[in-house]
């Protein structure tokens, strides 16, 4: 059963989304065209509790300046996703900015991303959210977008970026979770076809592709 159909059978009370600027809806032309809004509208219109913060990463690793990235996902997920008993669906789309950051490879890397993502998933599963939880691979970034960004968030290779995609896919299999192949499905549209003018955030069509990946997610 696909994730959207599965949620309807569970009787969820809302949808919580967790991620960065893409999950916050950046560059969708209208709020209702951002991927979380599309998802909530499809799944009986349940209210969205959007816990995305633009510019954030998932891992609590030190950047090139020796400091942690503010509002990292591992440091705030308990308050955002486990703040009280609830029956909300939980959709996580993280890893995009982790993959883009290249300035501190000894600390900001796939290994530490895997460690912190797994720790977060373990806590969510322990709290009883496994049946309402889906995780998505980082959205596709066009080749030209790999050189766009603030200090440290450039110069990633395609192979390096895809290493983070593989981590999310492997974690979904490890924990038997619903997996949304966001990167993989966006990639089939061609390089840059779903990107907005800034080459970093998705267009309306890109947001719809992310929504499609989550609504049709299947258990790994």
UniProtKB/TrEMBL annotation:
The keyword S-adenosyl-L-methionine does not apply. InterPro entries: Ester_Hydrolysis_Enzymes, SGNH_hydro, SGNH_hydro_sf. Keywords: Hydrolase. Pfam families: Lipase_GDSL_2. GO terms for molecular function: phosphatidylcholine lysophospholipase activity. Gene3D superfamilies: SGNH hydrolase. This is GDSL-like Lipase/Acylhydrolase. It comes from the Bacteria. Residues 17-209 form the SGNH hydrolase-type esterase domain. The keyword Hydrolase applies.
């Amino acid at each position: 059963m696909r994730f959207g159909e599965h949620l309807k059978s569970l009787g969820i009370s809302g949808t919580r989304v967790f991620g960065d600027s893409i999950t916050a809806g950046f560059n969708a032309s209208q709020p209702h065209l951002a991927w979380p809004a599309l998802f909530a509208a499809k799944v009986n219109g349940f209210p969205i509790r959007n816990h995305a913060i633009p510019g954030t990463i998932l891992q609590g690793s030190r950047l090139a300046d020796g400091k942690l990235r503010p509002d990292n996902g591992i440091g705030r997920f308990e308050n955002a996703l486990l703040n009280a008993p609830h029956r909300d669906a939980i959709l996580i789309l993280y890893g995009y900015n982790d993959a883009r950051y290249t300035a501190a490879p000894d600390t900001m890397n796939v290994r530490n991303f895997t460690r912190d993502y797994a720790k977060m998933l373990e806590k969510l599963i322990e709290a009883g959210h496994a049946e309402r939880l889906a995780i998505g691979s980082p959205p596709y970034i066009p080749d030209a977008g790999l050189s766009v960004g603030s200090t440290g968030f450039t110069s990633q290779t395609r192979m390096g970026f895809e290493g983070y995609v593989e981590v999310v896919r492997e974690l979904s299999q490890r924990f038997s979770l619903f997996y949304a192949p966001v990167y993989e499905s966006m990639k089939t549209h061609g390089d840059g076809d779903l990107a907005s003018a800034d080459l970093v955030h998705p267009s309306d069509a890109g947001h719809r592709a992310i929504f499609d990946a989550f609504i049709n997610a299947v258990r790994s």
